[in-house]
Amino acid sequence: MYGVELRTAGYRIKNGSRAFRKLVIPYIQSRIHGYEFRPLLSYLYTEWKCNIDCHYCFQFNNKVKGMSIETAIQSIDWLKTTGCRLIAIMGGEPLLRRNFILEVVEYAAKSGFFVYLPTNGRLLTEDFIDRVGQAGVTAINLAVDCVEEIDGLPKALKLIEPQFKYLVKQQKKHGYLVFLNVNITSKNLEDVKQLTEVTHEYRIGIDYHINQPPYLEQTHYKHLDNDTYIREEHWNAVDKVIDWIISKNKQGYPMVNSIAHLEAMKKFVRGELVQWSCRAGHNTMFIRVDGTLVPCFDMTSSKKDWGNVFTGYRFNPRGLKAMKQECIKHCLSTCHYNMSHYYDTFARSLKWATKHARIG
Predict the structure, then answer these.
(1) Across 120-213, where does the E strand assignment appear?
(2) What is the DSSP secondary-structure string of 30-59?
(3) Which stretches within 56-188 are classed as H helix?
């Protein structure tokens, strides 16, 4: 028992130190240089292809070639010059090229980055979990929407239960964090609650998204009108689930979402305008498979030239502000809303950090 306590203490100290160096310091620097382009977080979109078909997801296209290792390395090197120290590898399904991901994770970790890796878990193996842990991955996010598979929602915990348990078992050995990523739809409301309790049982984190259709046209997307979208007849049921999540947040369950974001979801599904200050293109950014830049996920299909990792960024504050007056009506991004929430006042950031340090 004493050995377990020592490993747990070491795990917390290591992650606390890593968070301070790669999140807190860049965050403070970005506030000091508040008008400069300083991405606290950058998404590295390495893969458009996916091995499953979630009906709500428009961010995959099996005809598009993935990112090259040369572009990935150039992206990491360029990001380092901007002060960014947090990279989220994205897809599609990144693990369709596991050796490529291992190479990217190792290079980014050695370059001083906090490396976040999401996956639907289908392609996880015990060998890969250990290898990516040794490579220096900092957080692994399992995208799971239901316990048992539901039509249109194939990301089911039961289908990856062995991988999930091994991933959690090895987290203190390798020092990474594990959490679940859940999309709240019209079809998985009870599952959302069950998955929340699973994360509490295993003492891991969770973040929630509210299902929303694409803002820009996605010509490859074949499920534009589907039954996972939240419609008027679902509003009251969604409210009850969100209120339940908020109660768990107040009880200390580790969640990425702020209570303000969860409350805003209830307005958003009704089409009510939620006022928030998006920081995409300022403190967050998205690198596409060819190395070109866009402010956020919803702009992946945009034709506008925002620059690239080879010649630099072209984000214009005035242009971004004008664009967001319209696109923010259709978006409640978990990442960007919470980024805005914690940039509003420094005290919120300290409160969030204190809470998660306390619960480990």
Answers:
(1) 139-143, 177-184, 205-210
(2) HHHTTTS---SEEEEE-----SS--TT--S
(3) 69-82, 98-110, 126-135, 161-169, 171-174
Of the candidates 234, 194, 175, the one whose C-alpha atom is nearest the C-alpha of residue 210 is 234
pLDDT value at position 300?
86
The domain total for the chain is 1
Range of the domain at 19: 2-359
Does the reported pTM lie above 0.85? yes
Q: Which residue has the tokens 């249109």?
A: 152
The Cα 113–Cα 104 span in angstroms is: 11
Phi (first) and psi of residue 307, to 5 degrees = 100, -175
Burial class (CB in 10 A: 0-12, 13-18, 19+), 214: middle
Question: Packing angle between helix 69-82 and helix 98-110, nearest 10 degrees?
Answer: 30
Would you say residue 359 has pLDDT above 80?
A: no
Q: What are 29-50's pLDDT values in tens digits?
A: 666 666 678 888 999 999 999 9
CATH of the domain at 309: 3.20.20.70
Range 69-77 average pLDDT: 98
